Structure formats: structure tokens, C-alpha cells
TrEMBL record:
It comes from the Bacteria. Residues 11-201, 267-363 form the Cobalamin-independent methionine synthase MetE C-terminal/archaeal domain. The lineage of its organism: Bacteria, Bacillati, Actinomycetota, Actinomycetes, Pseudonocardiales. Its cofactor is Zn(2+). This is Cobalamin-independent methionine synthase II family protein. Transmembrane segments: none annotated. InterPro entries: Met_Synth_C/arc (IPR002629), UROD/MetE-like_sf (IPR038071). Keywords: Metal-binding, Zinc.
């Protein structure tokens, strides 16, 4: 599998948030007065952000990861509740006020209101990229909230429909991705948490608009559940019109369906039309049943499997990780396979998070050795 400018057998990396050092979390120098997200607004906050990202990068290097992730430091203390704030602060068209999302497992998400034309006003992740690039010589990956997740976290009072809002957000993201590619990012990752509940016909079009013409490897992480440990609900088998509007009944399940397989099937076959290089979702907690749709739909691109359970504080052994990787290889050949955490690690102590990353790298090393690497 390609990582940066080279082929790496069974590369290991991390998805999403990483526990910030305690000295950084909640410190006033890391927050612009009156706003909830992270902003680099003077030399002190810039130094703090760079030091924080350096700590996160070093933890990944010590663990032995091949692709170093940004750790989503930009998310603030509660990265999920503040899902859209980081971008909203840097775009036109948004106001802070608005109710939280009417979604059972994501009810902690606060949704701001779109009241005007959405345009990127300031860079989204250029400071993050520069800080990460200074912190490591290894290939790097920067994470973005996906267009589908952004639209779900928006109370739209301006655009005629959800697709029009999504395309406006996609254009803003596309501008930022191209800036990062010009500076030198190896991979960018878009995170989508609403896709397991069913996908509207507009979502792949918006994703492709966001990544069009970007000279970097494009990763797509599909999230199977929220930060509190609740698994994703199965999609509602209802009216197509409701799905296109982004309306889901998350408490209903198709009769006779199995939870894991149906949750994975909800992104197929539409995800086959996505202009991405890598698809990623969890396997560590749900098991290999979610991988059946990959084979059924002849997925021929790279797949990065989450094999570390981020909902449990118990650290896997390297042998346990190796066993999970072997189970994934029943569906994906090792030449197209990478491994990572199921999702982000923000709700566990940093020491445990670091140990889980080490188990991930050591488990991958066991399987590599079995294949002559």
C-alpha cells in the first residue's frame, strides 16, 4: 500500500483525535476569547499548538506508526460537540446560535445555523499541517470533518436544500485541501459519521467536489459510533425522499438483519463512486462481518482496517491485534491493506492511548514478518 512516496507492507496509522497533553487541554492560551475552538491568534498560542502537535507526533513515532496523524488538535476540549466550530470560525455564513442535533447517539452535538453564503475566509488546517511537518520526517496525514457530517451539524436557513449547502461546504474544503497539497501533505482524511445511517444521492457528488484536483492521497473514514461508545444504528428503510433530505429514523432496523453486516452495507454500492484512494472503518470492536460488503462489491482500492477497540480501556496484546489483521486478510489482500485504530482515542488517558498504538504497530509487525517483510 502506498504511503507518501513509497510502498509499505501493512502500514499502521491512527484515526481521529488523540488525547492532548494535560497542560494544553483547557488552557486559556489555546483558545481565542469567547470562541470554543482552537485558534492561532498570537505567538504564544502558535507555540502552544506546535508543542502540542509535536507531543502527539512523538507518541506515534515511538509507537512505530508509519503515517503520522495530526490528532485533530483543532477540535477543542470536546471535539464532537464542537464538530463544526473550527470551520465555522473560518467561514462566512454561520452564526453560533442553534439547537443541538436531533440524533439519539449524537445528541451532544451543538449545531450552529447557516444564515448566508458559505465561503472559506481563512485557512482551515494550514497551521496544523505546518506544525505536524516540523514535528516529524515521516509521511503525515491531516483530518477534516466530512461534508456529510458538516451538513448534518448545520441548521440550514439559507440554502434551498441540503445538497446546495453540501456543495458550498465542499468548495470551501476543496480550496483548503489544495493549499495543503501545495505545502506538502501526504494524505488527507475526511471523517463521515452519518453514512452508516443511510446515504442521500447527493453525498458522493459533494465528496468528489471536495477532493477534486487535490494532489494528495485521499482517505475516507466512516465512523460506526459516537465517542461515548454507542454503536451506530442501522439505517431506516423508509422513503427515499426522506433520505435525500437527511432525515433518518435511527431506532428502526430492517427485520431479520444482522447489525454489523447491514451497517456496512449502508455505504455500498454508493461508496464505489467516491474519488478516494483509501476506505477505512472499524473492525476491532465489531468483528470481521462488516468486511463482507467489500468482497461482495469487489472493492479493489486500499482498505485500512480499524483493529484497535477505542471504546475499551483494555489494551490489546500484539498477538490479539495480529489475529484481527489475519481475519481482515480473508477479505483484503495484504498488498492493499493497512491498519489503524477503530476511531479516535480522545476519551482515554494518554498513557493507555500510547500503549494501544504500540500494540497496533507490534501486531502489524508480527503479520509482516509472516509475509517475509
Amino acid at each position: 500500500m502506498r504511503i507518501g512516496n513509497q510502498e509499505v507492507l501493512l502500514p499502521a496509522t491512527m484515526v481521529g483525535n488523540y488525547p492532548e497533553p494535560r497542560w494544553y487541554r483547557g488552557e486559556s492560551f489555546a483558545r481565542y476569547p469567547g470562541l470554543p475552538g482552537n485558534l492561532v491568534f498570537d505567538s504564544i498560542s502558535k507555540e502552544a499548538l506546535e508543542d502540542c502537535i509535536q507531543c502527539i507526533a512523538r507518541d506515534q513515532e515511538r509507537a512505530g506508526l508509519d503515517l503520522i496523524a495530526d490528532g485533530r488538535v483543532f477540535g477543542g476540549e470536546d471535539a464532537y460537540a464542537q464538530l463544526l466550530y473550527h470551520y465555522m470560525e473560518r467561514m462566512t455564513g454561520y452564526e453560533l446560535n442553534g439547537p443541538n442535533l436531533p440524533v439519539p447517539i449524537y445528541s451532544a452535538l451543538y449545531a450552529p445555523t447557516c444564515v448566508g453564503e458559505v465561503r472559506r475566509r481563512y485557512p482551515f488546517h494550514l497551521d496544523t499541517l505546518k506544525a505536524l511537518r516540523r514535528s516529524t520526517d515521516r509521511p503525515i496525514k491531516v483530518s477534516y470533518t466530512g461534508v456529510g457530517a458538516m451538513t448534518a451539524a448545520t441548521n440550514n436557513t439559507y440554502y434551498s436544500d441540503i445538497k446546495e449547502l453540501g456543495l458550498a461546504l465542499a468548495k470551501a474544503i476543496n480550496e483548503d485541501l489544495k493549499d495543503l497539497a501545495d505545502v506538502g501533505v501526504d494524505a488527507v482524511q475526511l471523517d463521515e459519521f452519518v453514512w452508516p445511517y443511510g446515504m442521500g444521492d447527493w453525498e458522493i457528488e459533494c465528496l468528489n467536489a471536495a477532493v477534486k484536483g487535490v494532489d494528495a492521497q485521499i482517505w475516507l473514514h466512516v465512523c460506526w459510533g459516537n465517542w461515548g461508545g454507542t454503536p451506530a444504528y442501522l439505517p431506516y428503510e423508509g422513503d427515499d425522499e426522506d433520505k435525500d433530505l437527511g432525515i433518518y429514523n435511527l431506532e428502526r432496523r430492517p427485520e431479520g438483519s444482522t447489525e454489523t453486516t447491514e451497517r456496512a452495507r449502508s455505504i455500498f454500492p454508493k461508496v464505489l463512486g467516491a474519488d478516494i484512494d483509501v476506505l477505512n472503518y472499524e473492525v476491532g470492536r465489531t468483528g470481521p462481518d462488516d468486511l463482507k460488503p467489500l468482497a461482495d462489491n469487489n472493492w479493489d482500492k486500499a482498505f485500512v482496517a480499524g483493529v484497535i477497540d477505542v471504546k475499551s480501556l483494555i489494551t490489546e496484546t500484539a498477538d490479539e491485534v495480529a489475529d484481527r489483521i489475519r481475519a481482515v486478510m480473508e477479505y483484503v489482500p495484504i498488498e492493499r491493506l493497512g491498519v489503524t485504530t477503530d476511531c479516535g482515542l480522545p476519551n482515554m488517558p494518554r498513557m493507555i492511548a500510547a500503549n494501544k498504538l504500540r500494540a497496533l504497530a507490534e501486531g502489524a509487525a508480527i503479520v509482516r514478518a509472516e509475509h517475509g517483510a
